[in-house]
Amino acid sequence: MDPLTLLAAAKVSFEALKAGIAVGKELQGMAKDLGSLFDSVAAITRVAADPKSSLMAGKSAQQIAMEAYAAKAEAESMMEELKNHFIGEFGIAAWDQVLSHTTQIKKEQKAAALEAEKEQEELMHNIMVWGSAILVTLLILSIIVLFIIGIVHR
Q1: Cα maximum dimension of the chain
Q2: Which of 61, 75, 107, 130 is deepest in the core (most CB within 10 A)?
Q3: DSSP-based three-state secondary structure for 23
Q4: % of the chain surpassing 90 pLDDT
Q5: What's the whole-model pTM score?
Q6: How far apart are CA 30 and CA 128, in angstroms?
Q7: Is 64 contained in some domain?
Q8: What is the tally of structural domains in the chain?
Q9: In this structure, is residue 110 part of a structural domain?
Q10: Is 121 a domain residue?
Q11: Any idea of the CA torsion for 31, 35, 38, 39, to the nearest 10 degrees?
C-alpha cells in the first residue's frame, strides 16, 4: 500500500481514539482502534523505510519520497499525542508495558505464522510423497494386469 492510503487508515483510528478520549471513554475500551493505529503506523514506517514498492504507481521518485516522509511524520505525531495522553492517564511504566507486550505478542504471532507455514509445507510434501507412491503402485498393478491379460490371450 502507498503511504497516503496507510495514513488515511491511521487517521481514522486516531480520530476515533480522540473522540473516545474526549467523551471520557477508557483507553482499554478502545483496543481495536489502538491496535489499528499501531498497525497502520508500523506499516507506514515500513513503507517509508523502503518506498520502492510505490514505484509502480507511476509517481516520481521525489513524490514517493515526500509522501513517505510526510506520512511517517504525521503518523509519528499522532503516536506521540496518543503516547502523551496515555502516559498522563496511566504513567510511563504502563506505556512501556504496553510496548513490551506488543513486541512480545508480535514475536509470538510471527513464530506461529512461521510454524503454520512449516506445517503446511510438510503436509504438501507428505501429500506428494504418498500421491507418488500410490501412482507408482497403480502403474505397477496396471503393468501386471496387462501382462496377465497378454499371457491369457496367447
Answers
A1: 97
A2: 75
A3: coil
A4: 30
A5: 0.61
A6: 47
A7: yes
A8: 1
A9: no
A10: no
A11: -170
